[in-house]
Amino acid sequence: MAFNFRSYDVNSILSYDISTEFYLHPSTFEDPEKTIKSKLEEVEVQLDNPCRELALTRLSSLLPSLPTSVHCEKSMISKKAKIEKIDKRDAKRFRQFFLNLNETGNQKESSGIAKRLLAERVDELYQPTPLREKYEFVLQNLKLVYPFLNTYFSKSKEPGEGIGKNVIAAKGVQHIVKQLERKNAFHGCDASVCFSFEDFSEKLQQAFKDKPTTRCIQHCFILRHRHQSKPKEFINHTTPIYMEKSHDVFEIFITDSGGGVRHWTENIITFLNEEMCTHFPESQTKIYHYSGKKRQSDFTSCPIFSIRDIVHMTQDPNMLKWMRAHGSSSQEKNIFAVPFLHPKMMTTCQSLSYIDDYLKATHTKDTKIYSKSKPLGKTLKQITDKHTHLMWVEKEGKKMLKKQNLKIAHLYLKYERSIIADAIVRGA
To answer: Quick one: 50 and 173 in the same domain?
Structure first.
């Protein structure tokens, strides 16, 4: 906040922020550069002030970034004013607002406002009975103004538990993966979204065929499943697969959110064994697959589980160490079933009762989970408590209030906003 330069408060000098003063005293900032320079002159003559040099340095550092800083604040105030003027009840007027922005070439502004409007409605979705009306009003009208948004999502035929009504389609998953790659979220590991087993085969060979065997090669895949009897039709399910090759030894990690050896995992294991024999006959292959209870309770979140799993597996080597240590071989010696995943990969599990069972079975109640946002570490319980909400769910024809971990729903809504905002800017 603004400070009195005649005071000896060092903290107030260091925390002085031009944008804060702009908010507090906008009328004095018609000419912000002049204001800062006059403050510099004021401090200059305070020879007896022990904070004089510090204040001069701080004020001088503000001048180069002044135009950008003030422009951003004015832009934020302008955007807020525009959002308040949008008619959020009249669909025709709502759509016309965005059409007018498009006609003037303000796609970036449209994008920011659309993202803000959706974000403002999120809390309403976390009620026991999600208040979808206002959120859906914004979402559906944006899709009418920008029809290309529909290609990033597919409608769930079975909404099930949770707050999601849509599934992020393969195109949407591809967009999020590229965005995360630009942010280096996979720590240099390449990632591919595969639209079929044939596509998976082609991308797998591109990633590992004829590559040097002296170094470790990593690649992760998100596989979109199709109907076996109707191969042209997608199934609303995706599976993450992380692969690592070192000195002609492949290690493959499959962490399907459906858990157990369900047909999705079985199909992938069968496919990979055939693929390795055909294209990499000289290599040894070890396949680790999650065989525990399902982490996913709804019918819409598997793409988010897939994305988060590959983020965890590429960022933190402890995920793979855990699977190696907890994998037990079956009749086929190269296949290892992993009944429990690392606590970090359980943060998105939707069932709180399963999380309780997991903590008892693995004795990880006090295990700290670390990340950039949690450098001091938090336990699995502390993380899930933050995202726990009471929701009405239907079970065996009866409705009941049930606590759920909505961390995966939070991530879904975040990715949904990101896809919509970026697509609007690109116009495709």
So the answer is: no
Range of the domain at 45: 10-85
Which phi and psi (to 5°) does residue 315 adopt?
-85, -35
CA distance 284 to 273: 10
8 A C-beta contact, residue 297 and residue 207: no
Number of domains in the chain: 2
Q: Cβ neighbours of residue 224 under 8 Å, at least 6 residues apart?
A: 170, 173, 193, 194, 195, 196, 234, 237, 238
Of residues 62 and 218, which shows the higher confidence score? 218
Residue 194 covered by a domain: yes
**Residue 244: what are its φ and ψ, rounded to 5°?**
-140, 130
Q: Is the residue at 116 inside a domain?
A: no
Indicate if 204 and 314 belong to the same structural domain: yes
Of the candidates 32, 51, 85, which is a domain's last residue?
85
Last residue of a domain, one of 85, 100, 129: 85
Q: Tell me the two tokens of residue 216.
A: 């470790």
The reply to whether 52 and 195 lie within a common domain is no
**What pLDDT digit, counting tens, does each position of 106-121 carry?**
899 899 999 999 998 8
Please give the helix or strand (H or E) that residue 268 lies within, else none.
helix 263-279
Q: Which two tokens stand for residue 71?
A: 């422009």
In whole angstroms, what is the distance from residue 60 CA to residue 322 CA? 52
Residue 6 has pLDDT above 60, yes or no: no
225 and 336 share one domain: yes
